[in-house]
Amino acid sequence: MNYYKVSITSSPEKQDLIIALLSQSDFNGFEEEDFGFKAYISEQSYDVTFIQELADQYNFSYKAKLIPTQNWNAVWESNFQPIQIDDFCGIRADFHPPFENVEHVITINPKMAFGTGHHETTMMMMEIMRTLNFKDKKVFDYGCGTGILAILAAKMGAQPIIAIDYDPLSTENTVENCAKNNILQVETLLGELSVVNETEFDFILANINRNVILNSLPSLFLKTKQNGQVLISGILHADQSLVTDAIEKAGFSMLKVIGKGEWICMHLSK
Prior knowledge:
Blueprint: E1 3-9, H1 12-23, E2 29-33, E3 36-42, H2 48-58, E4 61-67, H3 69-79, E5 83-85, E6 89-92, E7 104-107, H4 120-129, E8 139-142, H5 148-155, E9 161-165, H6 168-180, E10 186-190, E11 201-207, H7 210-223, E12 224-236, H8 240-250, E13 253-260, E14 263-269
Parallel strand pairs: 6-7, 8-9, 8-11, 9-10, 11-12
Antiparallel strand pairs: 1-3, 1-4, 2-3, 5-6, 12-14, 13-14
C-alpha cells in the first residue's frame, strides 16, 4: 500500500488543531517539524479537495508526495524514538537500547500502523490502563493499530484478548509485534466491528476517532459485560458534549475524563 506524505506549513498556534482535524479523517501518522508537520494517509484515502478546503479555512500551505510503502517504513522506523511513562511502561523499537527499572517494556516496529505511544490519545489510554486491574480479564482492542494497547493489557495479565483493525498493515503489524513481545493470548482479526462475535468483555479499548466511536457505541455496549469498562480516545475537547450525549444514550456511565492538548480520553462503565 502506498501513502501520501503531506508536508504542512502553518503557524505554531494552529498546528495542534489542524492535526486534530486531520486525525478525524483517515490520516494516521504525524511528524512535527520546526515550521509545521508532515501528515501521512493511504493513497486510496487521499482527498485533495478536503485538504484544500482545510488549507483555505485555516490558512496553511501544503505539498503532497506519494511515498512507496517500503520507503515509508524505513523513514518511519528511523524517526521512531523510544518513550517512557514513568516506571510503568517503556516503548521502544528493537534497535533501541533497553530500558532500566520499567515495569512493562513493549518492543514494536511500527511500520505504517498508528499507535507508538507518542500521540496524546494513546498515552492517555495507557495512563488510565495503569490504574486498572487486567489480571485474567477478557479484553477487546478495537482499532488495534500496532497492537500496543493489546500488548500492554497482556503484559498486565489480561487473557483472552481480541484485537481488530480494518487496515491489513495494522493487523500484520499487531501479529508481528505480539510475536516480538512473546504475547500468545492475542487473537488478531481483520475487518470491521461486525466480524467480532464475542461478547462479555471486561474491558474494551477503543483509540480510534469520533465518528467511528459514535457509530459503534451501541454495539460496544452489547459487547461489554455488566460492570465492564470501556476506554475511548481520539476525541477532541470540542466534541466532548456530543460524545457524552451518545455515551448516555448507549447506556454507559462516565467514570473519568482526562485531557492532553486538544484531546480527551473517556473511561466508561456499563
